[in-house]
Specification:
With 260 residues, the protein is mainly beta. The chain has 2 helices and 26 strands. Strands 1, 2, 3, 4 and 5 form a 5-stranded antiparallel beta sheet that branches.
């Protein structure tokens, strides 16, 4: 692994930390007040590429699928191991800003902390989730329904194929969490649907990414390298822009160098 990608920065309510994900496997707290980086602390789990890492109020949290023990690393403190049991891979496990580990594994959706495991849903087949602050937005694709936090399950319309439905990307705390499919958006709260919007031409499909903050939002289409800005209150799609890829940046830089 090259020096350019062995380092990673994680951010949270308590600040930020720099991870060295090479064989060195360390974490260094960034002191934003003193504008300095703290001493390196050993954190063996981060050397594995499939380890999920987040920064909670008490420090860096690291968990690895297939490893029963996670680690909480307080700033300048000693690592604190804790039991995690089975956890999902990739986006099936996330660390929320309060340091809790949320995961879908073996058909169950659970919240794990250093004090134990709390199960929020069982009997899940195809499911995925995201977070609004510390609150989960859970999509049960098999039953075509969504749940916000520990609220009621909300059924999605049958005329929207579940394969086209996406859950918003992790975002700040909110009273509801967004899901979208085709030309429709819903913001699901604990007591039901808080917002329902139809936007002509939105055309969300299952490979898209959805992010909404305030009145504005974007749909990112990775396959087409497009960013689609939306104003959901006005029910409008703004002008679509092309996403700039790393390869395009490199090509532009090469052209400038050749011209120079």
């Amino acid at each position: 692994e090259s020096d350019s990608n062995q380092f990673e920065v994680v951010q949270g309510p308590s600040g930020a930390s720099v991870l060295d994900r090479s064989g060195a496997a360390t974490s260094q707290t960034i002191d934003t007040a003193a504008l300095r980086v703290g001493s390196a602390q050993s954190l063996d789990l981060v050397s594995s590429p499939d380890t999920i890492v987040g920064l909670g109020q008490s420090g860096v949290v690291a968990v690895q699928p297939g490893v029963d023990t996670g680690v909480l690393l307080p700033p300048e403190g000693e690592p604190l191991p804790f039991d995690v049991g089975d956890i999902g891979r990739d986006d099936a496990t996330r660390v929320s800003s309060d340091g809790a580990v949320w995961t879908i594994a073996d058909g169950a959706f659970a919240r794990i902390t250093t004090t134990g495991r709390e199960v929020f849903a069982t009997g899940l087949g195809t499911a995925r989730f995201s977070l609004a602050g510390n609150t989960p937005i859970l999509l049960d694709a098999d039953r075509q329904r969504v749940r916000f936090g520990d609220g009621d399950w909300v059924a999605l319309p049958d005329d929207v194929p579940i394969s086209e439905v996406v859950v918003q990307q992790p975002g700040p705390p909110a009273s509801c969490g967004w899901v979208g499919g085709n030309d429709r958006l819903w913001c699901i709260g604990a007591d039901g649907v808080e917002e329902r919007v139809d936007i002509d031409g939105l055309g969300i499909d299952g490979s898209d990414l959805l992010a909404i903050a305030g009145d504005a939002g974007v749909v990112v289409r990775p396959g087409a390298s497009e960013i689609v800005p939306i104003d959901w209150r006005a029910g409008e799609v703004r002008d679509t822009v092309d996403a700039v890829t790393d390869n395009e940046d490199a090509g532009a830089d090469d052209s400038e160098d050749d011209d120079g």
